[in-house]
Structures are given as structure tokens and as C-alpha cells.
Amino acid sequence: MAVDPLIELRNVNKYYGELHVLRDIDLTVGKGEVVVVIGPSGSGKSTLCRTINRLETIESGTITLDGRPLPAEGKALARLRAEVGMVFQSFNLFAHKTVLQNVSLAQVKVRRRRQEEADRRSRELLDRVGLLNQAGKYPAQLSGGQQQRVAIARALAMEPKAMLFDEPTSALDPEMINEVLEVMRQLAREGMTMVVVTHEMGFARASANRVVFMADGRIVEDRSPDEFFTHPRSDRAKDFLSKIL
Ligand code: ADP
Ligand code: MG
Asked: In this protein, which residues make up the domain named ABC transporter (predicted)?
């Protein structure tokens, strides 16, 4: 099946000083595709995510979203950040704003929605992630799993074309992981284009169209979850899987 590409990286290289962190990265994420990125710590997974919404610049290569190069600055860059939602390991909510305000804020500031319209959409999204009854609380009054679901709702409020998740469940207590993964599984079923860095292999098997395995800044394997987990080709992937499975 040929998929319509949404995110394309071609020959992307990134350095931090002398450190070559992304090496000749070629990656295409089709519309509606869920790509899970795995690999050892330090292999460049977070950097890869951050380059896609231009939290990091690159030294060479091209990145396009919907066929257009990523904008470098100004309003177009702000729009890009809204179009490519990002959810991090740390929830990054505004501590002095309520859950509802957290979800509404960028809708008003970036999307220029009226407050009432933003709040109405926020309530819909909070309902979707199972947190409508927490709308008036402050982040510190919520569990980690609940905070992460607010962060997802906040990103979705921008009506993104794609969502990037960088280890969204790594900071959570085990009993809260599933409530966040369930929201992500639901998003995947609804056809959201997603790039997900995670160690949750159950999620990768059930929801990913492809698994990308990274090591030392390179994409070493890029295959279906079934092929990857049953027949990893590279020694690096075999070694990695033997440690986590
Ligand atoms: P991963 O997410 O796979 O653990 P990262 O993308 O965070 O890997 O990091 C890749 C490499 O880049 C690591 O060696 C890390 O130490 C280094 N690195 C990450 N961020 C920075 C930074 N801001 N400055 C310098 N080096 C960095
Ligand atoms: Mg990382």
C-alpha cells in the first residue's frame, strides 16, 4: 500500500559540536501511520523528534511536512509547532493554570479562538481523555497519568497534523502507564499520524505500522513490528531486544 507522505526526512545530519547525533537519516511517515522509534539511550531518538518540529536545527538534509520544508522562524514556525504536537516525558503543564486553562491557552494565543470556543473544545478533549471532571483542578492535584493525558489534550487542541511522543510513559508509575497508552491507542485507531519513542513493546506490537530501530544516530532497521520483533536483522537490534524483552 502506497501511503501519502506527511513527514519526510532526507539525508538529515545533526551535530552537537563534535558529536554527530543524527547520521544520514531517511525517514518517511505516511498520513495516518504510527511509527514507533526504539533504540538504546543516547541513540538520537529525542533529537530526531525535536528536529521534526524544529526545536533543533539540522546541519544538512531536508525535512518536509506535507511536502513543504519546515519554516525557519516567525509565524510559520509557530504554526508548525501547532501542526506537529509534541508530548514529552515530563508533562510541562503550566502549574499556575487550571487543567481547562492549560488546554485552552494556546487555542486563544496561537489559533486565535475566542475564549468560549476554546473552552468548549477543551471540555470536549478533556472528555475524550477521561478528565472532564478534573477541568477546574491544578496540575499538582492530578496524578502523573492524568497530567500526561492533559498534555495530550492540550496538543490535540491545536488540531495537529501529526503527534510526536517522546517517551510519554517513562516517568509514570506502572499503574498509570496504561491509561496514557489507551489514549494513544485510541488516537492511532482514529488515524492520527504519530511518531512515538517508547519502550512499551506491547504498544509497538499492537499499534505501530512500523518500528524504526536507532543506534548511534542511525536508523538501523525500519520494518513492520511483526518482522522486527520476530526476526531482527542487525546484531544491535538483537542485542537491544534481548535486554528489554
Ligand atoms: P535518546 O533520546 O535516544 O536517548 P538523544 O537524542 O537525547 O538520545 O541524544 C543523542 C546524543 O546527543 C546523546 O549522546 C546525548 O548525550 C547528546 N545530546 C542530546 N542533547 C544534547 C544537547 N543539547 N547538547 C549536547 N549533546 C546533546
Ligand atoms: Mg530520549
From this structure: 7-241
Q: Hey, what amino acid is at 215?
A: A
Cα–Cα distance, 33 to 214 (Å, whole number): 18
Whose CA is closest to atom 7 on ligand 1? Answer: 46
Residue-level length of the chain: 245
Helices 174-189 and 144-156, packing angle to 10 deg: 20
Tens-place pLDDT, residues 156-190: 999 999 999 999 999 999 999 999 999 999 999 99
- 53 close to ligand 1 (CB < 6 Angstrom): no
3 state SS of 163: strand
- Residues 112 and 91: their CA atoms lie apart, in Å, by 24
pTM of the model: 0.96
* Nearest-CA residue for atom 26 of ligand 1: 16
Residues 239 and 227: beta-carbon distance below 8 Å: no
- The answer to whether 86 touches 54, Cβ cutoff 8 Å, is no
Q: Which of 21, 86, 195, 218 for mutating ligand 1's site (highest number of atoms within 8 Å of CB)?
A: 21
SS3 call for 4:
coil
Identify which of 153, 160, 83, 87 has the alpha carbon closest to the alpha carbon of residue 125: 153
Beta bridge partners of 84: 162
By C-alpha distance, which of 69, 146, 58 is closest to 102?
146
